[in-house]
């Protein structure tokens, strides 16, 4: 290895190490603080909890965090399932017909235009519309998530199919007597596994951690709050008592971290191939 390459690798490792430390320190402080009393947090912010206490988590359970956790779980699971059921099929149809029919190119271009529209531009009209339609509830929030998930998810699936799923598979299946639905269900859909994992993680992270849409749609009815919305109001309730707030953050982190660890091996392949058109 040349001297210049060694220097480049050295600085890359330095930057990665520094970046890792900057990410891990706040996470470590959050975990430690969730097991401390507030006076210990104030006096020994970076120290390991001594003694370890579960009082913050007990108070969190007593304050009904389970209900808000359930709300977030239902919204996230239903939204992800619908996205992964319909968008891959739409992407397959578009990817296979873009080169043959101009209408599919136009349709695809219109659908992915949403990527370039900032949410802040349509935030107020969307809120007013959902309220007037009587959809200022969990079902309305799911509909909005599905709508906003279409552009990015469709873009990734179409790119992945065009790059990694050759047309010859369709032709071979047709020769064997399979119709389009059978071809998609038994051949194409299983081959999209890396992209399924990628879109699952991307959308689940967004749906689970999103704060702005629940604030706009669900804030009037506390029984429908999601976990991030509960954390926001909970932090305000315990403004001078940091322990329960830190515990609520850990509850939100653990679930999505587990999902990420399960599917992480497929994410890089899905992102790298799906981003290439």
Q: What this model shows, in words?
A:
This protein is mainly α and 277 residues long. The chain has 13 helices and no strands. The chain is globular. The model has no long low-confidence stretch (mean pLDDT 86). Keywords: Cell membrane, Membrane, Sugar transport, Transmembrane, Transmembrane helix, Transport. Involved in a binding protein-dependent transport system responsible for the uptake of melibiose, raffinose and isomaltotriose. It is a multi-pass membrane protein.
> Helical amount among residues, as a percent range?
over 70%
Output the CATH homologous superfamily of the largest domain.
MetI-like
Task: Report the radius of gyration as a whole number of Å.
Answer: 23 Å
Whole-number tally of structural domains: 2
Count of alpha and pi helical runs: 13
| CATH structural architecture of the largest domain | Orthogonal Bundle
Question: Tell me about the biggest sheet?
Answer: none
What string, H for helix and E for strand, traces the elements in order?
Answer: HHHHHHHHHHHHH
Q: What is the overall pLDDT average?
A: 86
**CATH fold field value of the largest domain:** MetI-like fold
Euclidean distance between termini CA atoms: 35 Å
What structural class should be given to the helix and strand makeup? Answer: mainly alpha
Which residues form runs of ≥5 with pLDDT under 50? none
Which of globular, elongated, flat, extended, rod-shaped describes the shape? globular
Number of strands: 0
What is the C-level CATH assignment of the largest domain? Answer: Mainly Alpha
What is the beta-strand fraction? under 5%
């Amino acid at each position: 290895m040349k001297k210049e390459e060694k220097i480049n690798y050295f600085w890359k490792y330095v930057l990665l190490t520094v970046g890792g430390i900057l990410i891990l320190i706040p996470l470590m402080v959050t975990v430690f603080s969730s097991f401390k009393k507030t006076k210990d947090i104030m006096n020994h912010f970076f120290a390991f909890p001594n003694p370890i206490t579960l009082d913050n988590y007990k108070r969190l359970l007593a304050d009904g965090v389970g209900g808000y956790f359930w709300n977030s779980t239902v919204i996230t699971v239903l939204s992800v399932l619908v996205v992964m059921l319909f968008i891959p099929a739409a992407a397959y149809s578009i990817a296979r017909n873009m080169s043959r029919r101009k209408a599919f190119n136009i349709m695809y271009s219109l659908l992915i235009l949403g990527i370039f529209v900032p949410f802040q531009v349509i935030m107020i009209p969307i809120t007013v519309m959902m309220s007037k339609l009587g959809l200022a509830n969990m079902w309305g929030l799911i509909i909005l998530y599905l709508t906003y998930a279409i552009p990015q998810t469709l873009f990734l699936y179409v790119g992945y199919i065009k790059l990694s799923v050759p047309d010859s598979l369709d032709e071979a299946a047709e020769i064997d007597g399979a119709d389009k639905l059978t071809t998609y269900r038994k051949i194409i859909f299983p081959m999209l596994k890396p992209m399924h994992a990628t879109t699952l993680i991307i959308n689940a992270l967004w749906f689970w951690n999103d704060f702005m849409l629940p604030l706009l749609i669900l804030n009037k009815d506390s029984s429908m709050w999601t976990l991030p919305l509960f954390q926001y109001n909970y932090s305000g309730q315990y403004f001078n008592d940091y322990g329960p707030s830190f515990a609520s953050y850990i509850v939100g982190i653990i679930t999505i971290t587990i999902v990420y660890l399960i599917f992480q091996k497929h994410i890089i392949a899905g992102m790298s191939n799906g981003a290439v058109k």
